[in-house]
């Protein structure tokens, strides 16, 4: 679940001003392997023509093969590459779906008002949550592609991605392997 919040911080800005060359280089469907160092999760990000869609599955701790997801989060929006290795996201839609009753019950009990202000979560029922739930509506980050792997920035301390001046400065733990190019 901790990676869920790290990856949620990767959601960005419009209108796209990227050059065609930059966009072509990053466009595609990118996926992580099953990540198990702090809980288990799988993620994918689809970047195409100035848009993004991130889908992330959360798995129970100890699920080393990422076989039994507990929840799924889908975030869509616009992406901009304003400078070399800079990536900015503007979230326009965020949907969370708890897949088990235990997770739905947990979402109802966390924070005084439940997860993202909802206290009526149910298993396998999706909710379109507020765009500022779990982070900024616009996130300013960094990226690099090395050996066909996409690395995205992550926010730590003052580099939380909330403004261009606070653009992520460190690399996240997850990397994405290209699964499909346009």
Through-space gap between termini:
30 Å
Order of helices and strands: HHEEEEEHEEEE
Helix content class: 10-25%
- Computed CA radius of gyration, to the nearest angstrom: 16 Å
How large is the count of helical segments?
Answer: 3
- So what's the overall shape? globular
Sequence stretches where pLDDT stays below 50 over 5 or more residues: 1-21
Task: List its traits.
about 180 residues; mainly beta; eight-stranded antiparallel beta barrel; 3 helices; about 15% helix
Structure notes:
By secondary structure, the protein is mostly beta strands. Mean pLDDT is 85; it is low at 1-21. An 8-stranded antiparallel β-barrel has the order 1-2-3-4-5-7-8-9. A hairpin with a 2-residue loop joins strand 7 and strand 8 (149-154). The chain is built from 3 helices and 9 strands; from the N terminus they run H-H-E-E-E-E-E-H-E-E-E-E.
């Amino acid at each position: 679940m901790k990676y869920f919040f790290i990856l949620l911080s990767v959601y960005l800005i419009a209108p796209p001003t990227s050059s065609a060359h930059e966009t072509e280089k990053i466009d595609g469907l990118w996926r992580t392997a099953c990540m198990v160092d702090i809980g288990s999760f799988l993620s994918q990000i689809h970047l195409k023509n100035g848009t993004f869609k991130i889908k992330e599955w959360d798995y129970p701790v100890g699920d080393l093969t990422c076989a039994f997801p507990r929840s799924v989060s889908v975030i869509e929006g616009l992406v901009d590459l304003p400078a070399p290795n800079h990536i900015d996201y503007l979230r326009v839609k965020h949907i969370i779906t708890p897949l088990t009753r235990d997770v739905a019950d947990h979402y109802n009990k966390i924070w005084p008002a439940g997860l993202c202000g909802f206290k009526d979560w149910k298993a396998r029922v999706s909710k379109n949550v507020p765009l500022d739930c779990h982070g900024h509506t616009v996130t300013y980050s960094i990226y690099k592609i090395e050996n066909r792997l996409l690395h995205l920035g992550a926010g730590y301390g003052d580099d939380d991605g909330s403004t261009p001046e606070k653009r992520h400065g460190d690399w996240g733990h997850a990397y994405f392997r290209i699964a499909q190019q346009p």
